[in-house]
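Ticket opened by: R.M.
Priority: normal
Category: complex prediction / small molecule

The reporter submitted a protein together with iron/sulfur cluster and asked that the result be attached to this ticket for the collaborator who will pick it up next week. Submitted input follows.
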Amino acid sequence: MNNKYESNKWQEVINWVQTRSLFMLHYCTGCGAIELPPTMTSRYDMSRFGIGPAATPRQADILLITGYLSTKTLRRVIYTYEQMQNPKFVMGFGSCTINGGMYWDSYNTIKQLDKYIPVDLYIAGCMPRPEAILEGFLKLKEKIETGSADGYKKYNKEYEKYKKNQEKVLGEVKRRQ
Ligand code: SF4
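Result attached by the on-call engineer:
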């Protein structure tokens, strides 16, 4: 048996299994967080897709950044992200995470989330509706299944680049591993 073929097949099985049980940590940073409760309750019922909330970073697979992010909160987001176990995934909600949105000229919010932590999927909108959020989760599941949600590998590989961007706005970041 070809070992490479065998390990690819195992990886596919692991990816498939993982998409059936995803725990998310929702970091309610901005107004986009308001659309999350209806996505979780009976009308949209995200748990039918195998997605539910996690209480702590150590148990979470997905980190949700639900809108604008102040530089002060960015430090906590970095601590949280670094505490999560691999493989881990990040979703950015709304235009604030993509380009600053309506806070594009604010002095105390970041303008582009993926300069500081890798983002596997953005959901456009201001704010994205529950239908868009569910669609985003399904797209993320597809990416996990095909192995293309690999932001956590990029973070390890390009750690110095991310660290430099983080420290440019925050000064020294004490790592709490
Ligand atoms: S994208 Fe819109 S809804 Fe989302 S945090 Fe920014 S201003 Fe609020």
